[in-house]
Amino acid sequence: MNKPITKNIIFRIVFPIIFGLFAYLIVLMIFDNVQLIIDNFFSKEVAFFIVLSFTIFESLLFVFIFLEKWHIFEEKPTPKLGLFILVSILISVSIVTVFGNLYFELIENTSVFKIELIVFNFIWSFASLLYLSIFYSITFIGKQAQKAMSIEILEKENLDKRLTLLQNKVRPEILYESLEILINLIHKDEKTAEEFISHLSIFY
Questions:
Q1: How far is CA 103 from the centre of its chain?
Q2: What H or E segment, with its residue span, contains residue 198?
Q3: Spatial separation of the C-alpha atoms in residues 55 and 64, rounded to whole Å
Q4: What is the number of structural domains in the chain?
Q5: Which residues contact 81 (CB under 8 A, 6 or more apart)?
Q6: CB 111, CB 104: distance < 8 Å
Q7: pLDDT tens digits, 97-121
Q8: CA–CA gap between residue 26 and residue 124 (Å, rounded)
Q9: What is the mean pLDDT of the chain?
Q10: Statement to judge: residues 128 and 80 lie in one domain
């Protein structure tokens, strides 16, 4: 089975960049005007948002893979999935809070504003839920496809066994009689003989 897209290295690099830029635009639209968006778009804040996205998504992926061993992604949702959502949000909030404080104190030389932290946490909590839904959907679909393939293989094996059993049950004398009938049909009616051969081939 192919590697899920969430574990694909290209997705793991590109998705955080795209979401980081998207989150940055949202924050600029919330706190600034359109002119400031144009002026400030390529600033150190962009790098911060991309690094933050990458850190959150990689952390979530690590936790998802670890918790996947608990069989959370089963056919029927379990209480574990609710716990999983809570863990995802907690990871996101923790990383945003730590990174946000570090960024504002070390790079901006100021303390983080409460409203900014709330907005950041809201954005990345949403992001973690989005990432969880992507991961869950892909994993669930993959497991369903794998299950369907297993059932199909099993059905084919059962059919082959039944056919083999049927072939073993057919007595040789019936085969000889069938061949004699076929020889007679070939001389009398070729079309019927062809149909007879087709039916005979099903059993042998």
A1: 33
A2: helix 190-203
A3: 14
A4: 2
A5: 72, 136
A6: yes
A7: 999 888 888 888 887 778 888 888 9
A8: 12
A9: 79
A10: yes
